[in-house]
Write a structure and sequence with these properties.
heterodimer, A: mainly alpha, 22 helices, B: alpha/beta, Alpha-Beta Plaits, 2 domains, six-stranded mixed sheet, 10 helices, elongated
Amino acid sequence: MNAMTVWKTTTATIDSGQRAFMGGVLAIVSIATLSLLHYETSAASAAVFVFGFGLVFWWAFVVGRALLLQRDARLLRVPGVDRTVALNLAMQFVALVVLPATVIAALSGLRFAAVSGVLACLAIGGIVWQVLPRWASIFIVFLPSLMQSKPIRDVLPGWNDPGFAGFVWVLACVLVTLAGWRWRALLVADADGFGQWNMPMVIQMQRQVGIGGGYRNFDVNALYAAAKRTGLDRQVQLRGAGPGQPVAALRVWLGAAFAPQSLRARLSQNLYVLLPMLIVGVFMRLSLSGWRPALNWTAMMMSLFVPAMCAGIVPARLGRLYRNAGSEIALLATLPGLGGGALAKRSLLQASAGWMSRIMLAFAVCDGAVLLLGGNRPTSLLVVALPTLAAIAMNFALAYNVIGGLRISPTVIVALCVLGLTAICLTPSLAFLQTQPGSLASWDFAGVVAGNWLLVFVLLTWLGWRGRAAYRLRPHPFLLNS
Amino acid sequence: MNIVATPMHSHATDNAVLAPNEGAPLSSHGLMKFYDGKCVLRDVSLELQPGSVLGLIGRNGSGKSTLIRAMLGLIELDAGEAQVFGGPALAMSDAVKEKLGYVPQQPDALAWMRVGQMLDYVGRFYPHWDRAYVEHTLDRWMLSRNQVLAKLSPGERQRVELIRALATRPQLLVLDEPAAALDPVARRDLLRELALRAADAGTSVLFSTHIVSDLERVASHIAFLHEGRLLLHTALDDLKERYARLQLPAALASQGPFAGEIHRRRLDHGGLSLVIERDADRDWPVIAREGEAHLDVLGLEDLFVEIAG
């Protein structure tokens, strides 16, 4: 077995679009890291974390999939996969932790032991994020914010402390032990045995149909498991959905988050996100000494997470349905009571992208109100408004392309995701910037962010325009794309 | 060579009687479909007459499912026209949709619902929904109303979908590989149900399969699709003793094509294996009377294997 085969062990488990996206993320953080080291030597430690940011995602969403491969290999009794996966992990560690640490240490003057220790923690942290039960892994998302809180910063050693390298390597060992323990347990765990709270992300990823589910496109057990977890069969509200009420009827056919449910049912489904958020919020309240900063922090985090999570939900769901010849779409095409072509087309958009837009707008109004009540300047609303508008536009634009029967190049998707994520991450800095008159640096930065958003919206407008044109030409909205 | 199917059942009941302006339940003309540059349907013309049971046969990947989807307006065509009850398949009215029952090959719609919940919900859309039939058949096939659809076995899932399609009291039933996931008992049950629907209610049925015995048991007509091309469309009874395999020695292999020849395959020793058809007077072509020619009359399964193999 040659080295390339071993290297491809994990990358082959994702599709070309996902590979391009993850590769793009790694390339961007690498360029950003090198730029920082070149132009701003005082920000060397920040550069390590910029690279580490990409590293976490790579290890979580690419390397972590090796576990799925190993699980399936065991089920299929394929020999030699355990060894190949072990070699792949070692190769990934050398290529993405040891080598970058060497370069960063050489360029920044930081100690190699410290840099490699931090990168190792972040890489293995990505795996831990994937293999921990959901209730625990959700805290990892908030970890960077928690690390910034005063009580924790007071305890942890700094980069220049003599014990820093030792500390990060001990931490890395703890993480390796934790990841290894969970990895071994998940290798033989029954995927159907997990409930709503203890389902690890990596198993969820395997079962996911559509969104990021390139590893397995369709799995009946996954649908059952999803139904069992959400209890949608018990919570769906079918009253008012039927012939003559095409929007409500279509929301039932679309299922998942689109199905009509009570507010209580929706809250209970999303409790696994809301509860950790609340716990972290309370922690921030304690560390920031005051409710207002804690609320501000929570509102800020939500303004980043909610649009990022909701963007793409609609095209992902529609994409799965329109690809599968046995799905709801085939039956909808022959179902009476949904009205003629034009009405059905409008209803489908209202039931899918329209419904998701209403959720996002409702959230944005609440989040914006919290930010204003928290004493922030009106420009802080940009943090909520721009990502929400972009997420709504993305859902509509990509949905038009899916139901218009058009294929979108992976390059365009990657460009859109990278530009969108960059814009979302940069906007808070812009919105809360204390711009001084004549401060050129601030206005330069504002220009970069505005240019980024402009590119995002231009790209979305073009996608939406061509998708809408194709959709209008379709004789009816339920034409399969396969 | 394509023979348009004619009605087999003379005792169709009222719901199969078409209004004067209605055409055949299904008809298609010159269908062409390409996927990624590959032609999967080549100039296919096919018609299903009222009350007939048309079995669409072909190997895996021959284009059966694509043809069914094209005829029902589930996919856009590169050329040709498909009609359902005389109207364009891509613009079916609610009145037409109410008369149509369709089961895709691997149904997984509304898989998160319970059996009873899904049937109740879908039933809302059909004015002639047969609730009593649903209850009776669920009991007869021992299917629980409270089971989540995704947790059913493929065979059970297929049966629930058949109940869904049949409960609409369709005048046109289109089933894509309906028996593929069923055990022999359930398959026999399904075929009996189809035959009864066609005979008693005059339901027109189009079903695809690669199980030849299913065709022989229930179909009044067959259509044979091979590599996207419709090679044969005829009444089942007309097939009997109509086709033969003719083996010719190497000396005659360079000749042809011969009258009545519909398929040829070169043999290893240089000879030729032909599938030939009787002429209008039910005589074999002249070449079959050559001294060194060897003729075997083909049954349906042998004919299928000979052409598709």
